[in-house]
Inverse folding.
């Protein structure tokens, strides 16, 4: 039996796990900026109305929705664009190469959320339970 046939039945569940973990990872950026947990020194004085504060709200709300698998496709679309903009605004001006400008995570998030936008939430989600995947 090939590895592809062994693992293929698990693809939908692994998609749900990817969505959940990506949501948790982006959510922690939002909690650090908005709720100051965990305490990150560079986010200590983030104002809600600032660009970083608005980004934190997008991360907080979008991350929570991703974790739950609720409104997954539109949320993934927004987070894909958000992380692309974050890359170009924060990282790209430092260097062309993500490894040199610290933007590897922003690029990876962008394409993970693009994939989730295209593939949907997976079976372990509120969207799937509501029949809206």
């Amino acid at each position: 039996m090939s590895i592809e046939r062994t693992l293929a039945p698990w693809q939908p569940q692994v998609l749900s796990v990817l969505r959940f973990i990506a949501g948790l990872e982006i959510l922690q950026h939002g909690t650090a900026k908005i709720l100051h947990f965990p305490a990150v020194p560079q986010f200590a004085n983030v104002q809600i109305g600032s660009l970083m504060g608005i980004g934190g709200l997008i991360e907080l709300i979008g991350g929570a929705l991703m974790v739950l698998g609720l409104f997954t496709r539109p949320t993934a679309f927004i987070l894909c664009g958000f992380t692309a903009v974050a890359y170009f605004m924060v990282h790209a001006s430092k260097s062309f190469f993500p490894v040199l400008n610290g933007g590897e995570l922003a690029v990876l998030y962008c394409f993970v959320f693009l994939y989730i936008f295209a593939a949907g939430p997976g079976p372990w989600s509120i969207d799937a339970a509501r029949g809206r995947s």
